[in-house]
Design a protein that fits this description.
Blueprint: E1 3-7, E2 10-12, E3 18-25, E4 33-39, E5 46-51, E6 58-60, E7 68-73, E8 78-83, E9 92-99, E10 113-114, E11 118-122
Parallel strand pairs: 2-11
Antiparallel strand pairs: 1-3, 3-8, 4-5, 4-9, 5-6, 7-8, 9-10, 9-11
Length: about 120
């Protein structure tokens, strides 16, 4: 069993930055791929970023390339999502997720455990 707890969300002005963290418990974290997804009101959950078990492979949604970065620290059982140059359309609840396996996926239904989410609101 793996438990995930996100933090770092909040209200930020357009152009601002946030750093989201996802702390995991469970001894298999270091061998699991991790992903970040987001869901805005009235919309489906969408892929944002993902990282393989050792950080050697990273995927980013086209809408966030050049603005967001994903990283992980297996010693701390934590994955990060750095959000820069934020736009109002980035407003959503951000979820981290993990899946059994070393490779990441872009599909939310291929992830096994989810956090409760952290709200990111971009507004002036």
């Amino acid at each position: 069993q793996v438990q995930l707890v996100e933090s770092g969300g909040g209200l930020v002005q357009p152009g601002g930055s946030l750093r989201l963290s996802c702390a995991a418990s469970g001894r298999t974290f270091s061998r699991n791929a991790m992903g970040w997804f987001r869901q805005a009101p009235g919309k489906e959950r969408e892929f944002v970023a993902a990282i393989s078990w050792n950080g050697g492979s990273i995927g980013l949604a086209d809408s966030v390339k050049g603005r967001f970065t994903i990283s992980r620290d297996n010693a701390l059982n934590t994955v990060y999502l750095q959000l820069n140059s934020l736009k109002p359309e980035d407003t959503a609840v951000y979820y981290c997720a993990t899946r059994r396996g070393v490779s990441y996926s872009l599909r939310p239904d291929e992830y096994d455990y989810w956090g409760q989410g952290t709200q990111v609101t971009v507004s002036s």
